[in-house]
Structure formats: C-alpha cells, structure tokens
Amino acid sequence: MAWVYLLIAGLLEVVWAYGMKLSAGFTELGASILTIVAMLMSFGLLAVAMKSLPLGTAYTVWTGIGAVGSFAVGVAVLGEAVTATRLLAAALILAGLVLMKLSSPQ
Predict the structure, then answer these.
(1) What is the pTM of this model?
(2) Which residues span the membrane (predicted)?
(3) Which of 11, 39, 56, 64 is most buried when burial is the number of CB atoms within 10 A of its CB?
C-alpha cells in the first residue's frame, strides 16, 4: 500500500505545482486554495508511505514523479518548449525512478 500512497502523493505534487503556477504568486484565491490543499495531502501521503519505505527511495520517487509530471503538464497544458535535451532529462529522471523502485526491498 505504501507504493500506492507514494504514487498518489507524487501526482498531488504535480497538482500543487500546477496550482502554484496558476495562483500567480498566491494572488488568485481558487488556485491558491487548490495548491495548499494538494500540498497538504501530498505531504501527508508521503509521510504515510515513509512509515514503511526507505527515506531515500520515498523522497526520490516522490520528487521524481513531481518533476516529470510537472514537465509533462508544462508541455501539454502550458505550451512549454519540448526539446531533445528536456526530453532526455525527463527520461533520465524516469529511469532513476524505475531503478529506485527496483532497488527497494519492498
């Protein structure tokens, strides 16, 4: 179950990162509330996952999901640039996530 919590926590990290972008420096109320709620839920689920997963694995996977997911949202929703270098960077992060999962004792 810890991996499920960690996956959801990572996806919520993407939500709060996108919400933070939409909040325009916390000047847009709706987006600011979304950001704070998603952030609290993400941190809470990360904490629950860390009860049974190693710190390094849990934190790395959480931030990796957030990084790659935020990159994908930036490209798909916000029209950010897609370059070979950015795609390679995202692929390397994804490869690191897979290796962390495979190297975890759970």
Answers:
(1) 0.89
(2) 33-50, 57-78, 84-102
(3) 64
